[in-house]
Amino acid sequence: MAESPGPMGKLPPQRRGGSPTERIGELERLLKLCERERGLIANELHDGAVQELVAAHMFLQSALESLGQRSPARPLVEQALERVTAALSELRRVMAQTRLPALEGDGLADALQRLKDDPRFRTLTIHMDVRLRNRHFLPTVELAVYRIVQEAIQNVLKHSGTDEAFVRVTQEQDTLRIEIEDHGRGFQPGKVGKEHFGLVSMRQRAQLLGGTLRVLSRPGAGTRIVALIPVRDSLVQTGPG
Ligand SMILES: Nc1ncnc2c1ncn2[C@@H]1O[C@H](COP(=O)(O)OP(=O)(O)OP(=O)(O)O)[C@@H](O)[C@H]1O
Ligand SMILES: [Mg+2]
Fold first, then answer.
1. What does the DSSP assignment read for 46-104?
2. pTM of the predicted model, to two decimals?
3. Residue 225 C-alpha to ligand 2 middle, in angstroms?
4. Which of 65, 67, 92, 146 could connect to 71 by a Cys-Cys bridge, CB 3.0–4.6 Å?
5. So where are the chain's domains?
6. CATH node for 108-235
């Protein structure tokens, strides 16, 4: 995959000074930039690759219609059509993830609960235990928590070899604690190649908010992701609800 600098590559050196409000403002700005770039990528995919594939699909469909039932080319064209259809739905899936998920509305806990019903995870049993004192947090905090949980569940689905994920999100004092666990095949976190982005971006999201993310795993012993994100009172927008 081509390397693009992206906003993460242009982060200014971290400023230690400044009031908490200023630093939060700075973080908000940076995270918004990241989200905007994700949106731009989704648009690019839509106007570029997706349109090309739609055109290819149309040509293949016409080719198929002009081929006789017994033509030896028929199964090949049918396969090509299937592949193009699969690529289109894969791209649409990527774009759907790239766009902001449905975080508006009922609050973080509800958004997390809704992840359980996401058709992408239908083959998984997700045990979701969410205990939050507040309904809403700053949008950047909500987005980070949502994305971390989403990617960790996705990893359970893709890599763990089990069909159960245990998610726990709790609010302790001024910290959100996010845990995603599975009892699957596990892996060696120190040996993950640079071409993988999921764990790296989960950690970046936590760190940008002043938090931490640990990956506890070893082969045969399952996997546990633990993220801690500070939510001092000043970060919380609304009262308990
Ligand atoms: N729950 C898990 N169980 C077993 N292995 C895992 C689990 N989560 C991650 N891994 C291992 O760590 C690797 C890196 O995960 P990461 O999410 O960074 O990348 P990825 O899922 O391979 O690709 P993507 O960049 O699309 O997320 C995976 O390829 C897999 O080998
Ligand atoms: Mg992943």
1. IIIIIHHHHHHHHHHHHHHHHS-TT-TTHHHHHHHHHHHHHHHHHHHHHHHHHSPPS-S
2. 0.66
3. 12
4. 67
5. 20-98, 108-235
6. 3.30.565.10
